[in-house]
């Protein structure tokens, strides 16, 4: 298959296949380990610092600092992880591989199920990889948008993509 045709088919597949996180992830307890916590219950924010490790079901988020914001209903709305190599992973469904992402800043917009990877951004889906200054990943639609530039980042980081050939069954 021609490379252009394969990219078009991949783009169509990524936008047409719904993917939801493992059933039960949202109901699983949230486990947090950190060196320090600053909690402002009225503002709905919690800031964890020092080798932060957060887990909920198949979701795993790490960073040197993680700020969590809740909306007026008390639901988690945004998690922002920062550090030299902040990390996020989640398994979309039992039959799909874990999706892994890195960046100096990671913004997880919970209700939108959207992840922004900023500065030295990297995303792995199975054997496929995406790198750049800014990557945006929509978990349910499996859509990746990549840019060389990220707001607030001086270094331009070219977008690179590696796609593994489809295996014959």
Structural topology:
Blueprint: H1 3-16, E1 31-33, E2 36-40, E3 45-56, E4 59-70, E5 76-90, E6 99-109, E7 114-125, E8 128-138, E9 143-147, E10 160-162
Antiparallel strand pairs: 1-3, 2-3, 3-4, 4-5, 5-6, 6-7, 7-8, 8-9, 8-10
The rough form would be described as: globular
Quaternary structure of the protein = single chain
Output the helix-strand order. Answer: HEEEEEEEEEE
User: How confident overall, as mean pLDDT?
Assistant: 82
Helix fraction by DSSP (H/I, runs of at least 4)? under 10%
- In CATH, the homologous superfamily goes by the name Lipopolysaccharide (LPS) transport protein A like domain
**Number of E strands:** 10
Secondary-structure-derived class: mainly beta
CATH fold-level label: lipopolysaccharide transport protein A fold
How is the biggest beta sheet arranged?
Answer: 10 strands, antiparallel
Low-confidence stretches: 1-20
User: Cα distance, first to last residue?
Assistant: 16 Å
The count of domains is: 1
Strand content: over 45%
CATH C-level class is Mainly Beta
Number of helices: 1
- CATH architecture, by name, is Sandwich
Instruction: Tell me the Rg in angstroms.
Output: 17 Å
């Amino acid at each position: 298959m021609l490379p252009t045709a394969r990219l078009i088919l991949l783009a169509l597949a990524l936008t047409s296949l719904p993917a939801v996180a493992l059933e039960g992830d949202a109901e699983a307890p949230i486990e947090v380990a950190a060196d320090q916590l600053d909690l402002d219950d009225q503002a709905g924010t919690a800031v964890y610092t020092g080798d932060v490790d957060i887990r909920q079901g198949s979701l795993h988020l790490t960073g040197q600092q993680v700020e969590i914001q809740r909306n007026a209903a008390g639901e988690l709305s945004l998690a922002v992880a920062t550090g030299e190599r902040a990390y996020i992973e989640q398994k979309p469904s039992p039959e799909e591989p874990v999706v892994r992402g890195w960046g100096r800043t990671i913004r997880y917009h919970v209700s939108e199920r959207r992840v922004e990877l900023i500065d030295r951004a990297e995303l792995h889906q199975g054997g496929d990889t995406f790198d750049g200054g800014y990557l945006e990943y929509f978990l349910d639609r499996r859509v990746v948008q990549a840019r060389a530039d990220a707001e607030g980042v001086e270094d331009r980081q070219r977008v690179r993509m590696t796609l593994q050939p489809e295996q014959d069954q």
